[in-house]
Predict the 3D structure of the following.
Amino acid sequence: MAKLVLFNKPFGVLSQFTDSSGRRTLADYITTRRVYAVGRLDKDSEGLLLLTDDGKLQNKIAHPRRKMAKHYWVQIEGEISDQALRQLREGVNIKYGKTAPAQVRLISEPVELWPRNPPIRVRKSIPTQWLEIIISEGKNRQIRRMTAAVGCPTLRLIRFRIGDWELGHLASGEFKVLEVN
């Protein structure tokens, strides 16, 4: 049986166990040893990070050929137009080329949301909106680059599901260990 750790990564935490600069890492939260991150979330992103002790499982989840769906809640600055939504759905040009089509829809602020520490910057004269974005690729800072490309910078980015695994009721900084085949 392989171990699979579901971790709700807080804002500002690196997706690694060590850091020579003294920043917060997985070691500050994860007590299960000999597990390794399956993919990454940049330090400015929050939410579901999977870790495992099994290389085959890691490959099954993370390999680009598998195209495992990753689901995000994205708070953007400004009001997104129908044209910008269409662009995101069809794929946009970012630093690494054109993205694959994404599933994108406007949503209300997620009810399950925990407060971010520190809070996002708020500008009273500029509204914000929430999107649900589902992608099957994972280019560096892809969601942030996608929303910026259509004129709506990302303020908060939370991954809540990867394939069949989701955050559920895990609070920020909490994890649970599953045994999987």
